[in-house]
Write a structure and sequence with these properties.
about 300 residues, mainly alpha, two-stranded antiparallel sheet, about 0% strand, elongated
Length: about 300
Amino acid sequence: DMDIIVNVFVTLLTFLYSVLNQDMVLAIIVFTVLTRLLLYPLTAQSLRSSKAMQQLQPELKALQEKYKNDREKLAQEQMALYRQYGINPLGGCLPMIIQLPIFFALYGAINFALASTPTHLLDLSGRLLVPGLDNVIPLNSSWLGMNLTQSASVIGLNPFTIGLIALIVVTTWVQMKLSMPPQPKPAPGEQPSTAQATSQSMTTVMPLMYVFFGMSFSIGVSIYIIATNVAMITQGLLTGQSKLSYLRGIPDDKPPQVVQARTESRKTSGAKALADKTKSDGKTKASSEKSGSKAK
């Protein structure tokens, strides 16, 4: 039930607010870091799968050229390629889909904790799962002269709201660039691959969409989005899943670890199987020779 997740997040956010000197912005930032750590396994799986799929684009494109008139054969060969490298083509999407309910719960938790409406304020105490936290209600929703429950479109454009929107756009763009390895540029006269077109459109369209989000979402949610982007950038750089070279458009010169691991595993398995077969053939031959000697 979504309400259970929302109540857990509301309780955590209110608890952080109570122990962090009743600073709502600091509570949102710490809350974001904790939720990113919680979601890290899903995020890491999604990034690994996306990078592996991008590394396979040259082979996928070759298959598309080879079987462009046979869609059924193309689908079979693509699935065979995915199995060869141990990649799930939906592996990058499923973790993101799983995270969607959590994001909506986080969005709801921030709005409920900030009591953006009188109904939320009345409902807040009933959502707290830890006794005694209702002593800090109502939470202070003022920051730098702005109401955290209101959006930039309601407050109006000023240096602070413009700065927040700019930070949303910049951090979103940087996070996306760092998480997607650049694809080699197509040769003159060659059409961009699916991965190249997707990467270019995502890094162009998504930040522009976030301008709209920054104008529409409350200031509290905007701070959460910025904190999430910064946390994901830091997380990616620390774990090696993101590289600063991606910002300069320099593609990877090595296959992703998941492909390397699968390839090495196949080589090891193949070598072991060959060794076992050779050993078995040797035993069979020796046994045959021994039987032949006895017969003589």
